[in-house]
Amino acid sequence: MIAQNLELIKLKITENTSLIAVSKTKPIESINEAYQAGQRIFGENKAQEMSAKHQALPNDIEWHMIGHLQSNKVKYIAPFVALIHSVDSLDLLKEINKQALKNNRIIPILLQFHIAEEESKFGLSLEESEVILSSTDFSAMKNIEVCGVMGMATFSDRPEQIRKEFQNLKSIFSTIKNHFFMENLNFKEISMGMSGDFQIAMEEGSTMVRVGSSIFGGR
Ligand SMILES: *Cc1c(COP(=O)(O)O)cnc(C)c1O
């Protein structure tokens, strides 16, 4: 079932878009099924759960942190995490930089933006991100690499609303790219799109889609 779902999703995903299979709350066996079908990138939203799964599963899996991350949990994933999508404060950046240094590595991250109508969703505003990126604190961080942006659209049945929010994230990406990362080829990722809206997200320039329930079933 998981292998078939994965095949169907992959048919719909364009060549230059990466598929993050969101395996949060799902057991090792389900992840293994997707792994056997060829999937190598998995997304989790809890640090300890991700760490346990990392230990139990093959080494060539890329683990992506997609959920809100508390600073005191960064240490659990710093040795191995491939990309943190959900960075939304300077304090969190500082902690990631510190733990990356401890592990003698550079940790790739995305800045998460608040693009939805709902108040509950985490994320920065464009202004907040510009304050962070202009700060001397940020310039001093040598062990993080900012690779792009992430956002979640409103949970809505109005495709035009969702599309507008994705267009907004794309425009935030371009503004930040022009102001801070013009020469940096690694600043290139736009992580947007989930099971319900990844096709709209791809039409609006997504480079990474995070798909859970369409692969693994409901949670
Ligand atoms: C759970 C989650 C997803 C996947 O959602 P589905 O609707 O199951 O595809 C994507 N992104 C984030 C940040 C999530 O927390």
Which key features would you list for this structure?
219 residues; alpha/beta; TIM Barrel; eight-stranded parallel sheet; 10 helices; 8 strands; globular; binds pyridoxal-5'-phosphate
* Global mean pLDDT: 97
Q: What portion of residues belong to β-strands?
A: 15-25%
What is bound: which ligands?
pyridoxal-5'-phosphate
Model regions low in confidence, pLDDT < 50 over at least 5 residues: none
Q: Structural class of the helix and strand makeup?
A: alpha/beta
CATH architecture: Alpha-Beta Barrel
Number of strands: 8
- How are helices and strands ordered from N to C? HEHEHEHEHEHHEHEHEH
What's the quick description here?
This protein is an alpha/beta fold and 219 residues long. The chain contains ten helices and eight strands. The protein is globular.
